[in-house]
Amino acid sequence: MLFVEKPKTYNFHFPSNIAIICAEYENQINLMTAAWHTQVSQKPPLYMVSISSQRYTHELIVYSREFSINFISYDLSQLAAFLGRTSGRDIEKVSVFDIALEQSVNIRTPFLKKAYAVYECKLYDYRRAGDHTLFIGQIVGVHYDENSFDPNLKTSPTLYLGSDKYATLDTSSVKIHSEKQVKDYLSKWVQDI
Ligand SMILES: Cc1cc2nc3c(=O)[nH]c(=O)nc-3n(C[C@H](O)[C@H](O)[C@H](O)COP(=O)(O)O)c2cc1C
Question: DSSP per residue over 149-171, as a string?
Fold first, then answer.
C-alpha cells in the first residue's frame, strides 16, 4: 500500500450514492448535487448533508430551515453533473434543465418528480465542519417508487466515483450475510450469543 500524508483529493472513500438537494426560500427554488450525505440517527430519523457555505443552496437552507433529499437512478446521471457544475446564483436551474417538481407534503420545498426516493427534511441542527456546514435534517416524510424497492433497492442508483466519473450498482452482485451466519461462525468459540 502507498502512504500519502496529504493527497490533493480524497476520493478513496467513493463510490457515494448521489443525492440531489432541493431548497426553496421565498419562491426561489434551487437544486444541487451532493456526494457527502448520510443518515445519522434512527430515533428521531435524522439525515445529514455537508454543504459548502459558497453554495447558493446553503443560503436557501439557512433561511428556509428545510430541504428535500432526492435519490436518482443512473439514467439521470447527467442531471447530477449539470446540477453539480452550475450555480443557482448564475442560472435558474429548474427551467434551464427542464426539471419537473412535485409538491411535498410536510415541507414547502418541492422534490424531484423523477427521483426514485425522497426525504422531506426539516432542519434539526447545523454546524460548521471545516469549509463545509453539516445540515442535519429531521425526516418528516418519505416518498418512494414501489417498483424500485423489494424492500431493498432494486433500481440502478447514480454512484459517484470522483473526478466527474459516474457508475451504478450491479444488483446481480448482491450477497446476504445474515446474523445467523455470524452467530454460526462465532459459536465455534462462544456459546449463548
Ligand atoms: C458529483 C458531485 C458531488 C458533489 N457533492 C457536493 C457535496 O456533497 N457538498 C457540496 O457542498 N458540494 C458538492 N458538489 C458541488 C455542488 O453541487 C456545486 O458547487 C453546485 O454548483 C452548487 O450549486 P448551487 O450554488 O446552486 O447551490 C458536488 C458536485 C458534484 C458534481
Answer: BSSSB-S-B-EEEETTEEE---G
